[in-house]
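ZP: hey, is the uracil complex queued? I don't see it on the tracker
AM: it wasn't, my bad. submitting now with these inputs:
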Amino acid sequence: MSYLGEPARERRGMDEPTLEQLQRGWRQKLQSLKRSGIRSLPAINSQPSDPEIVEPEAGDTAITREGASGVSQQEQLRVISEEVAACQSCPELVSNRSQTVFGVGNPNARLCFMGEAPGADEDVQGIPFVGRAGKLLTQIIEACGMSRDDIYILNTLKCRPPGNRNPTPEEANNCAGFLARQLDVINPDFICCLGAVAAQNLLDTSEAIGRLRGRFHDLDGRQVLCTYHPAYLLRNPSAKGDVWKDLQFLLKEMGLPIPPKK
Ligand code: URA
Protein backbone atom coordinates (compact mmCIF):
# COMPACT_ATOMS: atom_id res chain seq x y z
CA MET A 1 0.00 0.00 0.00
CA SER A 2 1.31 3.43 -0.85
CA TYR A 3 1.46 6.04 1.87
CA LEU A 4 -0.32 8.46 -0.38
CA GLY A 5 -2.87 5.88 -1.46
CA GLU A 6 -2.53 3.31 -4.20
CA PRO A 7 -4.80 4.98 -6.75
CA ALA A 8 -2.69 8.14 -6.70
CA ARG A 9 0.45 6.14 -7.44
CA GLU A 10 -1.23 4.19 -10.23
CA ARG A 11 -2.46 7.43 -11.75
CA ARG A 12 1.09 8.70 -11.90
CA GLY A 13 2.68 5.45 -13.13
CA MET A 14 5.72 5.74 -10.85
CA ASP A 15 8.35 3.21 -9.91
CA GLU A 16 7.44 1.00 -6.98
CA PRO A 17 9.17 2.00 -3.70
CA THR A 18 12.08 -0.15 -2.61
CA LEU A 19 11.83 -2.53 0.35
CA GLU A 20 13.93 -0.13 2.39
CA GLN A 21 11.57 2.75 1.59
CA LEU A 22 8.56 0.62 2.53
CA GLN A 23 10.17 -0.42 5.82
CA ARG A 24 11.00 3.19 6.66
CA GLY A 25 7.45 4.26 5.80
CA TRP A 26 5.89 1.57 7.99
CA ARG A 27 8.22 2.42 10.87
CA GLN A 28 7.03 6.01 10.67
CA LYS A 29 3.40 4.89 10.40
CA LEU A 30 3.80 2.85 13.60
CA GLN A 31 5.40 5.81 15.37
CA SER A 32 2.47 7.92 14.28
CA LEU A 33 -0.03 5.36 15.62
CA LYS A 34 1.90 5.28 18.89
CA ARG A 35 1.64 9.08 19.11
CA SER A 36 -2.14 8.67 18.68
CA GLY A 37 -2.19 6.48 21.79
CA ILE A 38 -2.52 3.14 19.96
CA ARG A 39 -0.54 0.53 21.88
CA SER A 40 -1.46 -2.69 20.06
CA LEU A 41 -2.69 -3.74 16.66
CA PRO A 42 -5.02 -6.60 15.82
CA ALA A 43 -3.07 -9.48 14.25
CA ILE A 44 -3.99 -10.62 10.77
CA ASN A 45 -5.05 -14.25 10.07
CA SER A 46 -4.56 -15.37 13.66
CA GLN A 47 -6.87 -17.11 16.07
CA PRO A 48 -7.91 -14.95 19.03
CA SER A 49 -6.81 -17.76 21.36
CA ASP A 50 -3.22 -17.66 20.06
CA PRO A 51 -1.08 -16.85 23.15
CA GLU A 52 1.24 -14.70 20.99
CA ILE A 53 -1.54 -12.29 20.20
CA VAL A 54 -1.92 -9.21 22.32
CA GLU A 55 -5.57 -8.30 22.33
CA PRO A 56 -6.33 -4.56 22.18
CA GLU A 57 -6.85 -3.23 25.67
CA ALA A 58 -10.08 -1.55 26.68
CA GLY A 59 -9.98 2.02 25.41
CA ASP A 60 -7.84 1.22 22.39
CA THR A 61 -9.48 1.93 19.09
CA ALA A 62 -9.00 0.07 15.85
CA ILE A 63 -6.31 1.18 13.43
CA THR A 64 -7.84 4.50 12.67
CA ARG A 65 -6.83 8.03 13.29
CA GLU A 66 -10.26 9.06 14.47
CA GLY A 67 -10.34 10.61 17.91
CA ALA A 68 -11.45 8.59 20.93
CA SER A 69 -14.90 10.15 20.68
CA GLY A 70 -15.25 8.69 17.17
CA VAL A 71 -15.73 12.17 15.73
CA SER A 72 -14.07 12.22 12.33
CA GLN A 73 -11.02 14.34 11.69
CA GLN A 74 -13.02 16.34 9.15
CA GLU A 75 -15.62 17.12 11.79
CA GLN A 76 -12.98 18.03 14.39
CA LEU A 77 -11.31 20.36 11.90
CA ARG A 78 -14.67 21.92 11.06
CA VAL A 79 -15.24 22.70 14.75
CA ILE A 80 -11.81 24.36 15.07
CA SER A 81 -12.31 26.27 11.82
CA GLU A 82 -15.56 27.71 13.18
CA GLU A 83 -13.72 28.87 16.30
CA VAL A 84 -11.06 30.42 14.06
CA ALA A 85 -13.73 32.21 12.01
CA ALA A 86 -15.18 33.70 15.21
CA CYS A 87 -11.77 34.65 16.65
CA GLN A 88 -11.36 38.34 17.55
CA SER A 89 -7.95 38.12 19.24
CA CYS A 90 -6.01 40.38 16.82
CA PRO A 91 -8.04 43.57 16.28
CA GLU A 92 -5.97 44.80 13.31
CA LEU A 93 -6.30 41.47 11.49
CA VAL A 94 -9.99 41.13 12.30
CA SER A 95 -10.81 44.57 10.93
CA ASN A 96 -8.87 43.94 7.72
CA ARG A 97 -9.81 40.35 6.87
CA SER A 98 -12.53 39.33 4.42
CA GLN A 99 -12.55 35.91 6.05
CA THR A 100 -10.26 33.52 7.90
CA VAL A 101 -8.23 30.96 5.95
CA PHE A 102 -8.11 27.73 7.91
CA GLY A 103 -6.45 25.08 5.75
CA VAL A 104 -7.12 22.67 2.94
CA GLY A 105 -6.34 19.10 1.94
CA ASN A 106 -6.42 15.58 3.28
CA PRO A 107 -7.32 15.63 7.01
CA ASN A 108 -5.43 12.35 7.39
CA ALA A 109 -2.31 13.50 5.52
CA ARG A 110 1.14 12.23 6.45
CA LEU A 111 2.58 15.52 5.24
CA CYS A 112 1.56 19.11 5.94
CA PHE A 113 2.97 22.15 4.16
CA MET A 114 2.96 25.15 6.45
CA GLY A 115 3.21 28.73 5.20
CA GLU A 116 3.18 32.17 6.76
CA ALA A 117 -0.23 33.79 6.42
CA PRO A 118 -2.90 34.31 3.78
CA GLY A 119 -2.24 36.94 1.12
CA ALA A 120 -4.79 38.95 -0.86
CA ASP A 121 -5.97 36.04 -3.06
CA GLU A 122 -6.25 33.68 -0.12
CA ASP A 123 -8.21 36.28 1.86
CA VAL A 124 -10.72 36.51 -1.00
CA GLN A 125 -11.03 32.77 -1.65
CA GLY A 126 -10.63 31.47 1.91
CA ILE A 127 -8.11 28.85 0.73
CA PRO A 128 -4.36 28.87 1.47
CA PHE A 129 -1.80 29.18 -1.31
CA VAL A 130 -4.02 30.03 -4.28
CA GLY A 131 -2.16 33.14 -5.53
CA ARG A 132 1.09 33.23 -7.53
CA ALA A 133 3.14 31.66 -4.76
CA GLY A 134 0.38 29.10 -4.30
CA LYS A 135 0.48 28.11 -7.95
CA LEU A 136 4.22 27.55 -7.63
CA LEU A 137 3.62 25.49 -4.48
CA THR A 138 1.11 23.35 -6.42
CA GLN A 139 3.78 22.76 -9.10
CA ILE A 140 6.29 21.81 -6.40
CA ILE A 141 3.83 19.37 -4.81
CA GLU A 142 3.11 17.82 -8.22
CA ALA A 143 6.83 17.58 -9.01
CA CYS A 144 7.03 15.46 -5.84
CA GLY A 145 4.48 13.06 -7.32
CA MET A 146 1.68 14.27 -5.07
CA SER A 147 -1.42 16.36 -5.48
CA ARG A 148 -2.89 18.99 -3.17
CA ASP A 149 -5.51 16.37 -2.19
CA ASP A 150 -2.83 14.03 -0.83
CA ILE A 151 -1.36 16.51 1.63
CA TYR A 152 -2.65 19.26 3.93
CA ILE A 153 -1.78 22.96 3.55
CA LEU A 154 -2.04 25.42 6.41
CA ASN A 155 -0.53 28.66 7.63
CA THR A 156 0.99 30.08 10.80
CA LEU A 157 -1.71 32.78 10.84
CA LYS A 158 -5.29 32.26 9.74
CA CYS A 159 -5.89 35.95 8.89
CA ARG A 160 -4.22 38.13 6.27
CA PRO A 161 -1.88 40.73 7.76
CA PRO A 162 -2.55 44.12 6.13
CA GLY A 163 -0.24 44.79 3.18
CA ASN A 164 1.12 41.24 3.60
CA ARG A 165 3.42 42.39 6.39
CA ASN A 166 5.03 39.71 8.55
CA PRO A 167 2.92 38.44 11.46
CA THR A 168 3.84 40.03 14.78
CA PRO A 169 4.96 37.67 17.57
CA GLU A 170 1.72 38.46 19.41
CA GLU A 171 -0.40 37.51 16.38
CA ALA A 172 1.54 34.29 15.89
CA ASN A 173 1.09 33.55 19.57
CA ASN A 174 -2.66 34.20 19.41
CA CYS A 175 -2.98 31.74 16.52
CA ALA A 176 -0.61 29.10 17.91
CA GLY A 177 -3.31 27.25 19.86
CA PHE A 178 -5.44 26.82 16.73
CA LEU A 179 -2.43 25.60 14.78
CA ALA A 180 -1.47 23.11 17.49
CA ARG A 181 -5.00 21.69 17.63
CA GLN A 182 -5.20 21.54 13.84
CA LEU A 183 -1.93 19.59 13.72
CA ASP A 184 -3.05 17.31 16.55
CA VAL A 185 -6.16 16.35 14.58
CA ILE A 186 -4.34 15.77 11.29
CA ASN A 187 -1.44 14.14 13.14
CA PRO A 188 1.02 14.32 10.23
CA ASP A 189 4.33 12.48 10.44
CA PHE A 190 6.04 15.25 8.47
CA ILE A 191 5.70 19.02 8.32
CA CYS A 192 7.41 21.06 5.62
CA CYS A 193 7.82 24.66 6.76
CA LEU A 194 7.82 27.14 3.89
CA GLY A 195 9.99 30.11 4.78
CA ALA A 196 11.37 31.65 7.93
CA VAL A 197 8.09 32.74 9.52
CA ALA A 198 6.63 29.22 9.51
CA ALA A 199 9.91 27.58 10.51
CA GLN A 200 10.79 29.99 13.31
CA ASN A 201 7.31 29.99 14.83
CA LEU A 202 6.81 26.23 14.66
CA LEU A 203 10.27 25.40 15.99
CA ASP A 204 10.36 28.37 18.39
CA THR A 205 13.74 29.54 17.18
CA SER A 206 15.26 32.67 15.68
CA GLU A 207 17.74 30.72 13.53
CA ALA A 208 17.83 31.82 9.87
CA ILE A 209 15.97 29.70 7.33
CA GLY A 210 19.23 28.97 5.50
CA ARG A 211 20.58 27.35 8.65
CA LEU A 212 17.37 25.47 9.47
CA ARG A 213 17.36 23.73 6.06
CA GLY A 214 19.07 20.46 5.29
CA ARG A 215 18.10 18.41 8.37
CA PHE A 216 15.02 17.14 10.11
CA HIS A 217 13.92 18.80 13.33
CA ASP A 218 12.02 16.62 15.78
CA LEU A 219 8.83 18.20 17.08
CA ASP A 220 7.01 15.86 19.47
CA GLY A 221 7.88 12.90 17.26
CA ARG A 222 7.03 14.70 14.04
CA GLN A 223 9.75 15.33 11.50
CA VAL A 224 9.94 18.97 10.44
CA LEU A 225 11.82 20.01 7.32
CA CYS A 226 12.33 23.69 6.48
CA THR A 227 12.76 25.11 3.03
CA TYR A 228 12.38 28.40 1.20
CA HIS A 229 8.95 29.96 0.71
CA PRO A 230 7.57 29.81 -2.87
CA ALA A 231 7.22 33.63 -2.82
CA TYR A 232 11.00 33.80 -2.27
CA LEU A 233 11.45 31.47 -5.25
CA LEU A 234 9.40 33.83 -7.41
CA ARG A 235 11.91 36.56 -6.56
CA ASN A 236 14.95 34.25 -6.61
CA PRO A 237 14.35 31.44 -9.15
CA SER A 238 17.95 30.27 -8.72
CA ALA A 239 16.97 28.92 -5.28
CA LYS A 240 14.57 26.39 -6.87
CA GLY A 241 17.35 23.80 -6.99
CA ASP A 242 17.81 24.09 -3.22
CA VAL A 243 14.09 23.54 -2.64
CA TRP A 244 14.10 20.52 -4.94
CA LYS A 245 17.05 19.10 -2.95
CA ASP A 246 15.13 19.65 0.31
CA LEU A 247 12.06 17.92 -1.06
CA GLN A 248 14.02 14.97 -2.41
CA PHE A 249 15.40 14.58 1.11
CA LEU A 250 11.85 14.67 2.47
CA LEU A 251 10.50 12.13 -0.03
CA LYS A 252 13.35 9.78 0.75
CA GLU A 253 12.66 10.00 4.49
CA MET A 254 8.96 9.41 3.83
CA GLY A 255 9.83 6.26 1.90
CA LEU A 256 8.34 7.69 -1.28
CA PRO A 257 9.83 7.45 -4.77
CA ILE A 258 11.51 10.52 -6.24
CA PRO A 259 9.84 11.24 -9.58
CA PRO A 260 12.18 11.90 -12.50
CA LYS A 261 12.67 15.58 -13.30
CA LYS A 262 10.49 16.73 -16.22
N1 URA B 1 1.84 32.75 1.42
C1 URA B 1 1.65 32.02 2.54
O1 URA B 1 2.54 31.88 3.35
N2 URA B 1 0.47 31.45 2.70
C2 URA B 1 -0.52 31.53 1.82
O2 URA B 1 -1.57 30.94 2.04
C3 URA B 1 -0.28 32.29 0.66
C4 URA B 1 0.89 32.89 0.47
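AM: back. The chain has eleven helices and six strands.
ZP: great, adding it to the tracker
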